[in-house]
Amino acid sequence: MRPNHILVVDDDSSLRRVMQIQLEEAGYEVTLASDGDEACKLLASERPPLVITDLRMPTSGMELLGFIQRENLMTTVIVVTAFGTVESAVEAMRSGAYDYVTKPLDFDALLLVARRAMERQNLLEEVRTLRSALDKRYEFSGIIAQSKSFLRVLDQAARVAERDATVLIQGETGTGKELIARAIHHNSRRHNRPFVAINCGAIPRDLVESELFGYRRGAFTGAISDRLGRVEAADGGTLFLDEIGELPLDAQVKLLRLLQEGEISKIGANNPTRVNVRVIAATHRNLQAMVEDGTFREDLYYRLAVVPLFIPPIRERREDIPLLLAELFERSRQRHGLNDISLSQGALRRLVGYRWPGNVREMENVLERLIVLSTHSLITEDDLPEEIARPSQQAPSLWPDLPEEGISLEAVEKDLISRALEKFHGNQTHAARYLDISRRTLIYRMEKHGLASGHESDTSMRDIRA
Predict the structure, then answer these.
(1) How far is CA 447 from CA 327, 367, 418, 442, in A?
(2) Mean pLDDT over all residues of the chain?
(3) What are phi and psi of 442, to 5 degrees?
(4) Comparing C-alpha atoms, which of 283, 284, 286, 304 is closest to residue 295?
């Protein structure tokens, strides 16, 4: 498709020629066709963004319009009709034409309509391009993953996307929980409806209910008009509740009603409001521990965790680090127009070997900082932040020498986990932090070694199997 290309279709050769002259003088590239049959062939081969066609021809303009609709051609159509047959032009617009002009032609009016139609077509093309980029970004196949653990998460997310089940995404800060939530929405039946994201920890506690559920005029001082809540704004689409663990208990009650009954109570309203939303929640906190502490409702937890997804931190999926570094580095170079900057092998080795406690978000920020602050085209180890360029001393060896007779790795792992749990009196969160693994990984390995004992471990085992 060539920009500013117009196909003029008319069986009057002299009028075709005059329109060609006028349009070319205005800066357009013009192709001519004498009837609908010839126009269909040119449309199939050249795909012009704009067609100006007479309605009354041996193969009529209406038939041409029907061909464009059937073939799903991204082409805008202006119809030309005699002054006394405007009804035909209106019918053509009902069938997909953009606008019409009447004979005898006012060429100033024709050029004005053509300019507006071309601007519309260019805008539609931009929207299609942006939508295509969005499709690519939020396709599960487009999310960077090579590690088995993360591929398993993506497989689960892709399967649940097709259903309307509530999803709870758990993982450390910066692991990409919102990216997974958006991908689930984008690949669901609700993809053409709103995706409304709310950070529950960013809303002041005294404003949570009005922000989420809205209010009626006069509900309180300052409520001078009705206010639509964020939940209702997501009607028909997906509501993403980030950092759900920060939601106050009184708001948790109303959220539970939404999940159970599909309705909300606005502040100051006498009757509930029906809402059709799919809820996806995310948190970096241990909701089960919060349930035990009484800071999170148990019934809400089980309503949210219909399909639990756990995103492992980067340090537990090291196969993904080189791919993520390459993608984020290239993306940042393009964003800042600095395509001549590259990473030295030494710098790359340091970046790959770093633990990335802030996960993908930290990686993205570090790479952008390196690019925008670089004074030369090659980023070396000397340019890296201190914590990456000169990592802290490695943990001391547990044994001065390995025994000659060999050693059981399984037995060593079981012993280390047992001792860590004993050190912290069975507290799995503290033991996991001590061993530099996630609590979910600790629970998995405890189960593998038959160490699931005590009430905390038993509850956790039920959680991981859910």
Answers:
(1) 36, 38, 12, 9
(2) 86
(3) -60, -45
(4) 286
Residue with tokens 């269909």: 40
Q: Which of 368, 302, 283 is nearest to 330 (CA)?
A: 368
pLDDT tens digits for range 83-93? 666 777 788 88
Tokens encoding 94: 């009902």
Domain match, 265 and 176 both: yes
Sign of the torsion angle spanned by Cα atoms 292, 297, 298, 303: negative
First to last CA, the chain: 52
Q: CB 70: neighbour CB atoms within 10 A?
A: 8
Same domain as 60, residue 101: yes
User: What does the alpha-carbon distance between residue 166 and residue 299 come to, in Å, rounded to a whole number?
Assistant: 14
Q: Is residue 396 part of a domain?
A: no
Would you say residue 461 has pLDDT above 50?
A: no
- Angle at alpha carbon of residue 309, lines to 304 and 311, rounded to 5°: 135
Please give the Cα distance from 355 to 352 (Å, whole number). Answer: 8
Q: What is the pLDDT of residues 128-156, one digit of tens each?
A: 766 656 556 667 777 888 899 999 999 99
Nearby residues of 402 by Cβ (< 8 Å), 6 or more positions away: none
Task: Output the pTM of the full model.
Answer: 0.63
Is the CB of residue 50 less than 8 Å from the CB of residue 75? yes
**Tens of pLDDT, residues 78-122:** 988 876 667 777 888 888 888 888 888 888 989 999 999 998 888
Query: What integer pLDDT is reported at residue 452 of this predicted model?
Result: 66
- Whether omega before 48 lies within 30 degrees of 0, making that bond cis, reads no
Q: Which of 97, 55, 57, 106 minimizes the C-alpha distance to 77? A: 97
Is 401 part of a structural domain of the chain?
A: no
What is the C-alpha to C-alpha distance for residues 125 and 120, in angstroms, rounded to an integer?
A: 9
Count, residues in the chain:
466
Residue 108's H or E segment, with its range, is helix 107-138
Report which of 392, 300, 408 is spatially closest to residue 354, judged by C-alpha positions: 392
Domains of the chain: total: 4
Q: DSSP assignment, residue 105?
A: P
Q: In terms of residue numbers, what domain contains 127?
A: 5-134
pLDDT of residue 68: 86
Distance CA(466)–CA(462), nearest Å, equals: 6
